[in-house]
Amino acid sequence: MLTSLRTLIVKESVGLVGPLGGGQSDVEWQLPVEYIKIYKLNGNTGKELTELLPHLPKLSKLVIWWCKSIKKLVVGVDVQQTTQEASEMGGGEITAAAEEEDDGVLLLPAHLCDSLRELWFNYCPELVLVDPPTLVPGGGWLQALRSLQTLEPLSNLSSLIRLELGNCGEDLKCQVLWSLITTGGQLKELEVRGSHRFFADRDPNPRRALEDAEGGEEQQTQIVSSTLHELGTDDIAGFLAAPVCRFLSSSLTKLKLRGNWCEGMERFSKEQEDALQLLSSLQELDFSCFKDLHQLPAGMSNLTSLKKLTIYECPALSSLPKDGLPKSLQELNVGLCSNQQIRQECRGLEGTIPKIVL
Fold first, then answer.
1. DSSP 243-258
2. What is the pTM for the complete model shown?
3. Please, what is the Cα angle at 95 between 93 and 100, to 5 degrees?
4. Count of CB atoms within 10 A of residue 287's CB?
5. Residue 87 pLDDT level (bands cut at 50, 70, 90)
6. Whole-number Cα distances in Å, 129 to 68, 73, 110, 152, 278
7. Largest CA distance in the chain
8. How far apart are CA 234 and CA 167, in angstroms?
9. Residue 92 forms part of a structural domain
10. Fewest beta carbons within 10 Å, which of 49, 193, 211, 235?
11. Does residue 162 fall inside a structural domain?
């Protein structure tokens, strides 16, 4: 009866909206809700949302926080057709479907493929995206949500420009996104937090021996280029490897390195320092949350395009690189670095760097 409702927010409840129905047909029972946020719901949230969403033809933003009961996601489903087909099947399959439904399944109806623009899942630790079962004809992966503008971590979303991923665990690897930042993709900004093996063992341009039919000579696979301009990552070990940095050298202009997973790391290795110097197009570089870091990478003076350097929350850092900073540097920001020696060094650079912020 709330025929003007646009926003629905439900927090810390045992349920979402309660039993639906009331004798009205699906055609009559529709609401103009555009935004739903649910937070710490403890009931059968997947089932309730599955029943509610078909009645919301204009939904454009769905945000789900701390709903542990939602464990499986199926996208692009004709819920009414699925229910009808399930009722026509034999007892064994119906029983299996019922068990699946009670196991935290959320079915996103097909109409959301054209209306949903933002989709957020935060702190849903057991959530997985599953293949559509036989009882869900027409279901699909997230690429079925054609109107999404944010959070679309799949390889064929060729129009995606910015992507931010948080706390997805060490199993998330960059392979699933690689086509988005190479020729044919348009991804320019990528932020990955809480996946400290994201770049592990990744060679964007592997050399492969191909035997020439006549001469038996070795050839190299075709080189692909990167579209990525801005990157934030806490996978320091995986990212600072020569193959990855060489691949991004001509495109990457802004880099944020987060040391959240680098406990006990006092300095960068020689290999990591050399890899960083390959980023010849870098204009902004940010080091943050390196709790135990004593020294910044050597060789930073070779980053001849660098204009801005930020060092934040690195309390053990005692000095700037001994071989100096790039002459191109226009701005130096140092914050929450408690060592007084590095602050004195920065003050000593006043007049040589146009802007210094302590």
1. HHHHHHTTT--EEEEE
2. 0.59
3. 95
4. 22
5. very low
6. 15, 5, 16, 12, 37
7. 81
8. 11
9. yes
10. 211
11. no
At position 173, the amino acid (one-letter code) is: K
| Full domain range(s) for residue 106 | 1-151
Instruction: List 38's β-bridge partners, or say none.
Output: 10, 64
- For the chain, the distance separating the N- and C-terminal CA atoms, rounded to the nearest angstrom, is 57
Q: How far is residue 229 CA from its own chain's centroid?
A: 15
Q: Does a structural domain hold residue 215? A: no
Counted residue by residue, the chain has a size of 358
How far apart, in whole angstroms, are the C-alpha atoms of residue 219 and residue 212?
Answer: 8
CA pair distance 201, 241, nearest whole angstrom: 9
Helix (H/G/I), strand (E/B), else coil: 338: coil
Distance (Å, whole) CA 339 – CA 322: 16
Beta bridge partners of 51: none
Tally the domains of the chain: 1
Residue type (1 letter), 65: W
**Which tokens hold the place of 126?**
């057991």
Torsion (CA) 289, 291, 294, 296 in degrees, nearest 10: -10
What tokens does 256 get?
């944020």
HSE-up of residue 107 (Cα within 13 Å, Cβ side): 27
Q: What pLDDT, on a 0 to 100 scale, did the predictor assign at position 80?
A: 53
Q: How many CA atoms lie within 13 A of 41 on its CB side?
A: 25
DSSP state of 296: P
Q: In what order do the strands lie in the sheet with 7-11?
A: 7-11, 35-39, 61-65, 118-122
Question: Is 110 among the domain residues?
Answer: yes
Average pLDDT, the chain: 81
Which pLDDT does position 90 carry in this prediction?
42
* The pLDDT of residue 200: 84
Output the CA torsion sign for 108, 113, 119, 123: positive
How far apart are alpha carbons 330 and 311 in whole angstroms?
14
pLDDT at 216: 45
